[in-house]
Amino acid sequence: MFKNRKKEIKILEEIYKSRKPKLILLYGRRRVGKTELLNEFSRKHKSLYLLARQESVKDQLKKMSDEIAAFFDDKVLQLNPFQNYDALFTYLTKKNIPVFLDEFPFLVESHKPLPSILQEYWDRHFSKKPSFIVLCGSSMQMMETLLGYKSPLYGRRTEQFLLEPLTFNDACEFFPKLSKEQKIIHYAVLGGTPAYLLEFDYAKPLRENIKENILMKNKFLYQDTLFVMQQELKEPAIYYSIIKSIAKGNSKLGHIINDTGLEKGKIIKYLSVLQNLHLIERRVPITEKNIEKSRKGIYLLKDNYFKFWFRFVFGNNDYIEQNLQNKLLDEKIMPELSSFVGRIYEEIALEWVKKQKQFGSLLFGRWWEGENEIDIVGIDNKKKNIVIGEVKWKNIAKKEVQNIFNKMKKKSSLIHFKARERNYFLIGKEIKDKDGLRRLGYKVFDINDIID
Q1: Choosing a second label site near 201 at 20 to 30 A (CA), which of 28, 71, 356, 383?
Q2: By C-alpha distance, which of 287, 293, 299, 300 is closest to 412?
Q3: Is residue 28 domain-resident?
Q4: Residue 179, number of CB atoms within 10 A of its CB
Q5: Domain check: are 132 and 224 in the same one?
Q6: What is the CATH number of the domain that holds 110?
C-alpha cells in the first residue's frame, strides 16, 4: 500500500504539467520506495514502466520489447523485438507518454555505451518535445556517476531527486494506532524505510516484533542490511567494522581509528565512500565557521535501522545462531533500548524545533566542545541571538526543571558566541504541570507538542 510521499508526488505532478522536455534522475537506497512512487504517479497518468534486470543486452532488449508491445498492443513489435537501443529509442521518440526506466544501472552494466546513446536521442529528438523520461536506480554509486560532469548525460538531466527515508511524521502513517511514545520507539528501531516499516505487526508488542522479524536468520529485516551494503561495496567487511564502531558511539575520527585498528588514510577513504552512499554523515558544531576544515567533525549513521542493526544484531550473531533470541533481548537490547531511543528523540526534537516559528529564523544544530555537549543550539549571527535547548527522553517532574535550566545556562557559557540575548528551552518525554511551568516563564515541551 502506498503511503505518504505527498511532497514528492506533488513535485512530479508539477514537472509533468509544465509540458516541457524533462529528463529526470530519481535515485535512492534500496527499499526506500522509488518504484512505488513511480507506480503511484502512473495510476493518474498512463505511463510506460520498464524494470531492468541483471542480464545480457539481448535479454534486456527482448524483455523490454515484449513489455512495450503489450503496452501499446503492437503485434509487429511482438514478433520483431528490438535488436539494439537505437531501435528502442527510435520507437519511443514517436510516443508521447511518460517513460520510466527503473534500475537503469543494470542496463548500463550490460551495455556501457547506453548513456551516450540516450544522450544522442535526447539531443536530437526527446528534447524537442514535451518528453517525460525518468531514469531510476538503487545503485547510489552508479547514479551519482551519471550526475557527474564526465557523464554523457551531464547537462541533459533537467531534475534529480535523491529519495530519502521517510521523516518521523511521515513514518507515523504506518502505525497510526500506537501511542505517541510507542511511535517514537518504533521509529527509532525501524527508521523511515517503507519496506522495513511494513514488516512489523503493530498489534504485537515491540519485543515480540524484534524477536520474530529482526532476530531470525530467515527474515527479511535480518538479512537486508548486509545485502544492501554488499550490493554497493567492494570490501564490505571493512565497512562493517567502521559502521559497527560508529553505531557503538565512536563518532570522532580518532575513536574510530582506535576501535577498528585501521590506518587513518584508509579510514578517511572509507568514510568518504560511506558519505557518498548517504549511509553516514559528517557534522560539525553549529558555531563552526569553516565546516570542511573543522577538526571537530563527527560521523553519525543516518538511518535508524542501520543504527539499531549494527548496535544490537551485528556482532551478536552467536546468540541468534544458538536460538538465544530471548537472552539477547534480555541482556543486550532491552536494557539499552531507552538510551538508544533517547538519541533518536534528540533528532526528532531538533527537526521539530526547526519548523517552529516561535523560535524565530535561526540556524539550528548541535554543539559540542570536548566532553561538553548541548542537544540543540539555534543562532542568528545578524541579530546576535542564541537559543539553547536540552532534550531528555524521560518524564520530568516540576521540581527538576529549575535545576535543568541552571545546568543549561552554565553549559551555554562555554559557547564562544557574543549574544545580545540568550533563551533556553527544555523538551522531555512528559513534563509534569507543563502549563504551570509555562506560566512561570519556562519554555517547556514534550511529546504532546511534538506529535499531533
Answers
A1: 28
A2: 287
A3: yes
A4: 11
A5: no
A6: 3.40.50.300
Identify the CATH number of the domain in which residue 433 sits.
3.40.1350
Q: Tell me if residue 113 falls in helix, strand or coil.
A: coil
Helix, strand, coil content of the chain in percent (nearest 5): 50, 15, 35
* Greatest CA separation for the chain: 81
Q: How many domains does the chain have?
A: 3
Beta strands in 260-353 (DSSP E): 280-283, 298-301
> What integer pLDDT is reported at residue 269 of this predicted model?
92
Q: 3-state class of 317 per DSSP?
A: helix
- CA pair distance 14, 8, nearest whole angstrom: 10
Cα 6 to the chain's mean position, in Å?
Answer: 16
The CA–CA distances, whole Å, from 73 to 44, 64, 89, 316, 429 equal 20, 13, 18, 54, 59
Instruction: Name the average pLDDT for the chain.
Output: 93
Contact by Cβ (8 Å): 226, 239:
no
Q: Please indicate, yes or no, if residue 1 is contained in any of the structural domains.
A: no
pTM given for the model: 0.91
260-292: pLDDT as tens digits: 999 999 999 999 989 988 899 999 999 998 888
Same domain for 196 and 127: no
What is the pLDDT confidence band of residue 144, given thresholds at 50, 70 and 90? Answer: confident
CA 20 to chain centre: 30
Hey, what amino acid is at 284? V
The answer on pLDDT for 3 being more than 70 is no
Encoded amino acid at 335, one letter: P
Predicted confidence (pLDDT) per residue in 415-435, tens digit = 988 888 889 999 999 999 999
What is the domain extent for residue 333? 169-346
Residue 9 pLDDT exceeds 80: yes
Cα–Cα distance between 206 and 341 in angstroms, integer? Answer: 13
Does residue 284 sit in helix, strand or coil?
coil
Please state the three-class secondary structure of 93-115 as a single string: CCCCCCEEEECHHHHHHHCCCHH
* Banded pLDDT at 45 (limits 50, 70, 90): very high
Using alpha carbons, list the distances in angstroms from residue 277 to 228, 285, 350, 360.
11, 23, 24, 33
